[in-house]
Amino acid sequence: MTPLEALQATLAAEHAAVYLTGVLGAQASQSRQPVLYAALTSAYRAHRRNRDHLTVAITTAGGVPVAAAVAYELPPAMSNASELNDAALQLERRIAETYGQLVENTAGAERRWALVALTESATRYLEFRGTPEMFPGSAS
Amino acid sequence: MRLMSPTPPHPDRRAFLLLGAGAAAALVTGCGLNNPFDTSTTPAAEAVRNLAPDVAAAVTAVGRLRTNQANLDAARAAHPALTKRLSGLTDLYRAHLEALVAAVPDGVDTTPATAPRPVPAGRAAALALVGKDAAAVQVGLVDLAVQARSGPFARLLGSMSAGLAQQVVLLQRTPVAR
Fold it and tell me: Highest taxon of the source (chain A) (predicted)?
């Protein structure tokens, strides 16, 4: 996988993450689930920021940033806090793995940025009731 | 439609590490050194300095993790009440050392060069120091990952760094009684 291909794959994943965290955030109640709502809002902002960074990085590298899909497959259940946490946690695990892939296939400043994004995603696990892992972002 | 594209298969990290270790071991058989970045000019020191870059990074990481592990063990011994609180980090250091140790050539001694640091009398201070150690190694692993020549090795170091970051967050979450 070339660095550009890895950046494109990560951007595709972030498009999906922005979409999904937006949907999950819309399902959470700001008044009844303030902690979850805040975590989802924070995750949404982080994924949007990462999406924008990746778009610029790909353009700078001479590529055409991959577009977002029209829609994405939604989690099967999003009716309560537990299900919303599970969906967000699963999302972050996939994103962390995608950033692991980006770390593996880039170098220099791009790799350093990917390492920071990987770490941020891994620490977000904990916001969604995830348990710590020995090697978050490693290939499954 | 899938949420994200599946990750393609990756080379096994142990296979990579064993390959690096095998190459490096040929260089340093019989050497017993604590620090691969020692500036002395003995043939043994130069041999370790000339290790494949990623093997030298692995040696550095193992040395730092073992130092932290020794300081953590000392904190647990001085404050048994912290044992449960530190169990996640204890397991993490062990798992990370197991993942890296195959890349360390046989002749290289990675035991901590100094005795464990004195443990603060207060539990909160002791815990804070363990967390500070973990945070420092976490940042160091990022730097080693950026420098790594091998992509899979960089990913391994990055995932170790991310795992440590989780532990640091957990250590900071709930204050302990002084």
Answer: Bacteria
